[in-house]
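Consider the record:
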Amino acid sequence: MSSHALRRLPADPDPASDAALLARLARLFAQSAADHDKSGAFPRENFIELQAHGLIGLVAPRAQGGGGASLAAARRVLGAVAWGEPATALILAMGWLQQHAIGRSDSRWPAHLRDRVLRDAVREGALINALRVEPALGSPARGGLPATVARREGGEWKLDGHKLYTTGIEGLTWLAVWARTDEEAPRTGFFLVPRSAAGIRVVASWDHLGLRASGSHEVLFEQVAIPLDHAVDLRAPAEWAPDAGSQTDIDAHATQQAWMVVLLGTLYDAVARAARDWLLGFLNRRAPSSLGTSLAALPRVQEHVGEIEALLRSNRVLLDDASAQVDAGRVPAASGSGLLKYSVTANAIRAVELALQLTGNHGLARQNPLERHYRDVLCSRIHTPQNDAILVAAGKAALGSAA
């Protein structure tokens, strides 16, 4: 434990509904956020604290001892975590997305492996993430076969490949590795790999503008052996298209997309809210001698703060509505989820930019958190789906319906 170890908080039987607990966690995580940003160190203490309150397994089904949380409940918790330290929130969100996907009743994962991964999360705080991006392929969301290959040798698969942006790799227990088989007709899908398996090498290459403590390093797989049943979801490549397969498959993909967009939108909205909260204190304290009062008294300042409030209110309405729709079982259109991400992240970035305009050099000084919030919120643009793909899909849908 580092010198910034967090004070243990009392456990709560329903942490997602305990506003006071979430506020305390947010403040605790904020205390060491600047240090994690400078060092890029994995925020291990934060995950110890989250596990102490049953939050790492929050989304796991109740059948495996998890919280079985709704999207609205997950959003409440993630917003508090991200307000304090957004890299922690990103790693947590990635794990929750995997819990939601494999915990579904229609999951294709073998039951014993699904049960093990979910129970590990609940009992031990074990983290999981999907490893998908590659140097040549880029994001699989844009199509193409992965260069990571699984070869069947006797009673095992042997994996060889190279993955980028493996968020949280320093703290993961399980890796869901996107790969293809070396069969005559290749199948693609996920292979469940223990992080402790021999042949896994981490290349500490993550030196990013923002979300620096996410530890999204490169990973090399060199003849990594796993049992045959750890090929947990293999399909013909065409079957992975969002509109392929049964209606159940299509609905599952759309729901998973909505969960991802709401959680990531919540993360970046929380960064903007942290920036807004710091800004309000600064404007009330800052009183230039030439002005004779605080900056908060100026109508121009009040107008811009009002614009920030409007942007954040729009985000809250959009994210709350999307959460309610998903939790009610109404499957959103994929293009609608994309537009939600586009609007919420644009609003969050604009809100922080307005804060910087109001603070000038003070906002860009490293001793103040606003410049860190700005670097973090800009990372929203690179998460899948990216803006160009969102707008093309929305435009095609609109033009198609009109035709």
